Amino acid sequence: YHKENSNKFWEWSLDKVNWNPAASTFDTISGSTLTQEQLDIINSLNFAQSTEQEPRSSQSIFSIGLNGKRIVIDPGHGGRDGGTSFTKDGIIIKESDLVLGISKKLKTEFEKNGATVYMTRDDNTNFDILPEKKLGLYARKEIANSYTPNLFLSIHVNDLEIGCSEGTQTFIYCAKDYASLGNGVSDFVSLDPNLNLDQNLKRSNIKNGYSYESLKAAREIHPLIARYMGTTNNVSGADFSVLQDDLGVNVKAPAMLIELGYLCNAGDRAKLLDVGTQEKIALSVVEGTNQFFA
To answer: Which is nearest to 231 in space by CA: 222, 239, 242?
Structure first.
């Protein structure tokens, strides 16, 4: 149970009737009887209250590396291309709608922390006007590059045609060899977290001038999202056309495509649809990005 104390801070008690606070913002160190999830709730409540009471200028919590940075957020799909979907009781959940909402939360958190944020779409814009889907992906790269970004994030949710999986996956541009190029998605290159950046990228014959910094950024961002999505997946390499196409046109910045979770998986789906988890995901991306730039 949680409530405000006399100092207007949130505290937690295991007994609602005989109130005996187990922890508060001033007592969240080792030895506490609270789980990490309970501590997260307390800290989230205190943060939410402080942002309501304090002026906007004091809301920055990760601004050391973010101030003045230009971030481009690409909410995947849009328009006629709804991406993957899930239908239950006649209600259709579309990837394009879900990632747009999460991307808007992400934009808000970045801006609170001093970054300038651009989005490739902020509504149900149709990028797929021409027959070839890759032309829509080319337009996204053009939009991104027009802002000379410091970082590009393409936000998606995942699915499988046969069966299902779970958890977050993050991809940067790299591929094993030329034979895998030209189809938009290569055989994924698993990037070993136990190897350093150079050792990992030496395993990929195909990469661009931003692959090193992309992997460096992804290694900061991915584990923080995984905290809440509960994944054991690592950062991987792929030749997604939104990062670089088979003509060699690429986003001119560190760039990654993040599959936040699997819409086909009930556990992932519940988290992705939960507003509180969406906020945690947004804060995780911002915190990881700040660590990358700091």
So the answer is: 222
